[in-house]
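Pasting as-is:
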Amino acid sequence: MLQSFFILHVGHFVDIFQSIIMGAVEGFTEFLPVSSTGHMIVMADFLGIKQDSVTKAYEIIIQFAAILAVVLAYKEKFTFQKIELWKKIIVAFLPIGMVGFLFAKQIKGLFSVEIVATMFIVGGVVFLIAEKYYKPKEHFIDDVEKVSYKQAFLIGLAQLAGLVPGTSRSGSTILGAMFVGLTRKASAEFSFLLAFPVMSAATGYSIVKNYKEFNVDNLIVLGVGFVVAFVVAYFTIKLFLRFLRSYTFVSFGIYRIIFGVALLALY
């Protein structure tokens, strides 16, 4: 009896430990241009986490936490006074919303470790090339509220690249924003705000499909993951913007290439 009690609680502790690690990985990588998908694959494999309905529920809850982190970080933008800004964000959301809905099965079929790793490398090279030719000018927009509808739509088209696993939704959005005339800071901020409708739609759809897994038995693990993902995502947003005041995306490009090569070698 005592041995069974010990094994049960050690197993529960491992679940909590996994929840903390995965929540931290999601919170840290979701808004950086490094693809949270690739990092979640590696970490889940390292921790021995199997993909099942409970895991899916966990992924939903930590994504929801990341959404709320954006709301807290930009609470002044979530008011009726900013309705014009949100009209532009919805315009930017439309391309990925329509394509994602119409071709969900085909997009899911693209998923493989090889594709994720390859797109890590491709994305890294694109970032390095982009930084070589990107020259911010005085007329570049540094305030997301000054983005035009045309720019918003073009950024939305660029975001479509993020549907390919390993590309990074935030990365493709940031690059698109930079090349339609936004500063690095404004590009990152527009990407953060655009994540709200994108992730809300994806999370809402997933909740409808997996609502049965949100029960009392999973409450502690889900709650721990939610809190960790929320806190890490919030501070990652703040630190990322501070980073961009002094640095470019070159380091992210190099990191993506190294991570992609390592992923191909390991898997």
